[in-house]
Amino acid sequence: xxxxxxxxxxxxxxxxxxxxxxxxxxxxxxxxxxxxxxxxxxxxxxxxxxxxxxxxxxxxxxxxxxxxxxxxxxxxxxxxxxxxxxxxxxxxxxxxxxxxxxxxxxxxxxxxxxxxxxxxxxxxxxxxxxxxxxxxxxxxxxxxxxxxxxxxxxxxxxxxxxxxxxxxxxxxxxxxxxxxxxxxxxxxxxxxxxxxxxxxxxxxxxxxxxxxxxxxxxxxxxxxxxxxxxxxxxxxxxxxxxxxxxxxxxxxxxxxxxxxxxxxxxxxxxxxxxxxxxxxxxxxxxxxxxxxxxxxxxxxxxxxxxxxxxxxxxxxxxxxxxxxxxxxxxxxxxxxxxxxxxxxxxxxxxxxxxxxxxxxxxxxxxxxxxxxxxxxxxxxxxxxxxxxxxxxxxxxxxxxxxxxxxxxxxxxxxxxxxxxxxxxxxxxxxxxxxxxxxxxxxxxxxxxxxxxxxxxxxxxxxxxxxxxxxxxxxxxxxxxxxxxxxxxxxxxx
Length: 493
Known about the structure:
Layout: E1 9-13, H1 17-25, E2 32-38, E3 41-47, H2 49-53, H3 62-68, E4 73-76, H4 79-93, E5 100-102, E6 107-111, H5 122-135, E7 141-145, H6 148-157, E8 161-162, H7 168-172, H8 184-192, H9 198-203, H10 206-213, H11 215-225, E9 242-251, H12 254-274, E10 277-288, E11 293-304, H13 307-314, E12 327-339, H14 347-367, E13 373-377, E14 387-391, E15 410-417, E16 427-430, E17 433-446, E18 462-469, E19 474-479, E20 486-491
Parallel strand pairs: 2-4, 7-8
Antiparallel strand pairs: 1-6, 1-7, 2-3, 5-6, 9-12, 10-11, 10-12, 13-14, 15-20, 16-17, 17-18, 18-19, 19-20
């Protein structure tokens, strides 16, 4: 049997973690809630105390909530930011003990065994922790017991309470069965049998309960009582991608600085490859003997972990460095890192892709990476909305251009054509030129996308034709049947 009496587990629950994160930066006294879209419905994700006082609850539809509380203020939820915020709180909690793990999406669990005396005892530690969180504007509920399950139960159903060592049974007996971290269906089934408190569950024979509700019910009960071990897995600290080189003698020539960078990159890239990561932004700090520092930032078009390629890209950045009386220390850090898993690749394709990435980086060093752009396909049959323009360094050309019909190389706003026939005109004027159609292909009928209110397409459907003229023009023309008229919208190469 597992004996948990020697351990002391502290559970930290943040009931309004998401809303507290937002309100710390922009306090609001009125009812406030974060909204998360589920399917086709906006639902309340996290509420402040004022909104809960109005009878609103998590999971309620936003339209229903506004009917109850017309002055409810809302903002979109951001689950990724909430995860980062909880990770920040986890790192903060390591000031009390080194063994801190995540407990769901809104809680922490701390193994404070042997560390409470550093804070004057368990009660003083809990009081100090609660005071700091309150000053930071974060609502928190604490529970302390011998086991993780018992500490969680106290934090959620008897906040601020600390069970004495060995007294977890008496501390849990009067708590509802939901304090055992059971599914909602199991809690409802137990309540229908009249088993509303954990004490009632303990006094009931185990075999019938296990047959009806499964082994999970008994496992949760044994974990809370300390009869079944439950581990606390602390999150590992993220790797630090930085290295430093202190020189015995100052250097000042560009070749010497490059040699130092190559040594730093060898160590840094080795660590990046160990973690299957690549650097996107690197920061080089050069410290001079007069204690002044200069920084060189290198932004890459693609994640890299090849020291030779990165060193070649650093060459331009250090040309304007003022070494003064000499540089005695170099520090190199990857400030932005992205996953770069190993993959099976071909030599030819890899070389072409690498050369393109290096070219984009070199051009970006001169004009900025955001100014090197590429076209990407978009899911639209409307010509002017069938593509996107995005920075080449931050957009992968993974989409496929689906063109069932040829499209012109140049597109421009529709320009009227002097022709009044419903059929493709053989002779017409465009841009003050008299043109003769020699070859005509079409039509291709395009309908407007009704879900977008595009003023250029309010006229309705269009019939497009490819017209090759005797004067050398290859035009993309369309006719609007509902409002008869001919227009040119593009020119083929």
